[in-house]
Amino acid sequence: MNEFKPLVFSGVQPTGNLHLGNYLGAICKFVALQENNDCIYCVVDLHSITAQLVHEDLKGQIRSIAAAFIASGIDPKKHIVFNQSAVPQHAELAWIFNCVARIGWMSRMTQFKDKAGKDRENASLGLLAYPSLMAADILVYRATHVPVGDDQKQHLELTRDIAQKFNIDFMEHIRRGGYGVDIVVGEEPIHAYFPPVEPLIGGATTRVMSLRDGTKKMSKSDPSDLSRINLMDDAETISKKIRKAKTDPDALPSELDGLKGRPEAENLVGIYAALSDKTKEQVLAEFGGQQFSVFKPALVDLAVEVLSPITGEMRRLMGDTAHIDAILRDGGERARVRAEKTMSEVREIIGFLQ
Questions:
Q1: Contact, 203 vs 274, CB < 8 A?
Q2: Measuring CA to CA, how many Å separate 109 from each of 38, 65, 105, 273?
Q3: Which parts of the chain sit beneath pLDDT 50?
Q4: Strand, helix or coil at 207?
């Protein structure tokens, strides 16, 4: 091997209802990437127990994510769709990465600080260590690219740090085993086993904000259902939520600079841009000078047009759980073959008896 084979990996947690932010920030990008890339898409159910250990219907939530993948257009035959816990090599590599990573690296993670709050001593060890599981999710397939939102860039940087430390610490073992690729990190040549993963960030909006507060990210955990558009919402509910979305009294500007200091306006323009596959500038060129009484109905029509077919297909799939389970089972078997090849080589690199 003289270079890393390009591979895209990403995953979604099965916690709560999927919403528009999940779709625009992740799933629709997954669909686009599958056209020209080898892709592995995962329902990361091991991650779902880090912040909340006990779930009432985790199986149903896992199936719901898989249904959203398929309903949105991901091809589970051409690519791999599976649930994380079906491939034990994720957890095995995560333990090795727990030994590679440093406690200081983990404790500096912004999401850990946010989720643990002031009572960090009472947070689960899984919450502290889950970035190393995320690194294992990616690197157990030696993936080269990961589509991420702005809030996940720090974790991807940590993945690169873990990969680089493993590569440097075991460089001579990697070379002796004939497993590595010659790369340059900075100005330092390294014989690497794991690739330096690159983020894929793009589109008109990478962060979809709450419909009730444009300064907060759209979230499954927000107590107000009016703050988000769920992928299972019907047309009437979508219309109600958009019409009730917080705005300001001014008309939409014609230029992008006019959105500064107007988070709710910027959010709705960003949503329209992403749903229509346009830039924000193009949306403002069309609606600049118009009041929200004109813009919101147009956004309702667009959102219903884009989301209704996905919602209908998700409901159909959720009515046939045996079909979803078969897709996940097939994906898990194919993923395990790839993951075990990596783990067999990692065990040899480290020096474990097999």
A1: yes
A2: 30, 26, 7, 31
A3: none
A4: coil
- Cα diameter, the chain: 70
Tokens found for residue 215: 């300064």
Instruction: Write down the catalytic residue from 165, 220, 246, 278.
Output: 220
The catalytically annotated residue of 5, 78, 113, 115 is 115
240 classed as catalytic: no
Q: Is 217 a catalytic residue?
A: yes
pTM above 0.85, yes or no: yes
Q: Which is it for strands 80-83 and 188-192: parallel, antiparallel or unpaired?
A: unpaired
Q: Residue 246 catalytic?
A: no
Residue 206 is predicted with a pLDDT of 59
User: Can you give the pLDDT at residue 203?
Assistant: 56
Please work out, in degrees rounded to the nearest 5, the angle formed at the alpha carbon of residue 167 by the alpha carbons of 165 and 168.
Answer: 65
Give pairs for 279-288: CB < 8 Å, separation 24+. 279/204, 280/204, 280/205, 280/256, 281/255, 281/256, 284/252, 284/253, 284/254, 284/255, 284/256, 284/258, 284/259, 285/254, 287/252, 288/251, 288/252, 288/253, 288/254, 288/255
Active site residue: 153, 217, 240, 341, which one? 217
Amino acid identity for residue 300 in this structure: V
Report the phi/psi class of residue 16: left, alpha or beta, with left for phi > 0 and alpha for psi in -120 to 50: left
| CA–CA dist 68, 198 (Å, integer) | 25
Structure tokens at 235: 């047309």
